[in-house]
Peptidase M61 catalytic domain-containing protein (Pseudoalteromonas piscicida), 278 residues
Amino acid sequence: MRLWITLTFVLLTGTATATELVINYKSWISDNDRQHVETWLNHGMNAAERTLGELKQPALTATIEPILFASEPVPWGSVQRGRLDSLNLHVKRFTPSRILVKDWTIYHEIAHLYHPLLAHSDFWIAEGLATYLQNVIMLENSLFDINEFRARLTSGLNRGAKNTQLHNGGLSSVSENMWSLKAQQRVYWSGAAFFMEAELALKASLSPHTVRSLIAKFQQCCKSSHPSGLENSGRLFIAKLDKLSKTTIFSNLYASYKQRNDFPILSRAEIATLQPLR
Ligand SMILES: [Zn+2]
């Protein structure tokens, strides 16, 4: 059995958030690295809450594993579901906070905390939402501008389309076997396209809502009582987004997306009109 040194620190994050951040380190970390990690985690929480509203859990534990050799500042992250959801993040040692804050991983993982745990067949919704929202959070917090936002979405959609040529089953069944099929790009970016289409449809219907404002509402009203990890968790989550937006946009898209064998096409003109912060 591997023995970890676990050092726990409790940080009260800035005034923008009421969530207490608790940091566990799975191995020794220098004082200097620890300061950079703490600055980065605080920034990540504040950035996510600025975009998606208050996270309705009293404490968030982030377990940090410092890594010596990695090709990226944050080579791996995941969410651990429980009574209180928590984060696991691998961090390359000696990385200053100004580099860490530019990495997308933390925004993606915190975005997952705003939706319920979904069944494997609906992973495309979970991963698509986190992938879309990570870019919305980074845009709103000036980590890049609207041109970079659209460029990142465009290149992601291109990767998804390419990956779909290798995996042409229905999206729900490919999602269930995403890891063994190596179909992550299709699953993540089909889901991101779903939320981009929803964003465009909300705007076209003159709705006052955006995807991020609906997710913020869901967090406040509904996430803590929503069925977690069940077969119908995804369908009920989609139904709730319809109810909150007073539309049928999400369930109509859901009905067509879950069965689809192809990759959704969004035109350059559509991507150019995406306004996630309006
Ligand atoms: Zn994810």
Summary: The chain has two domains: 20-113, 120-273. The CA atoms of residues 2 and 26 lie 11 Å apart.
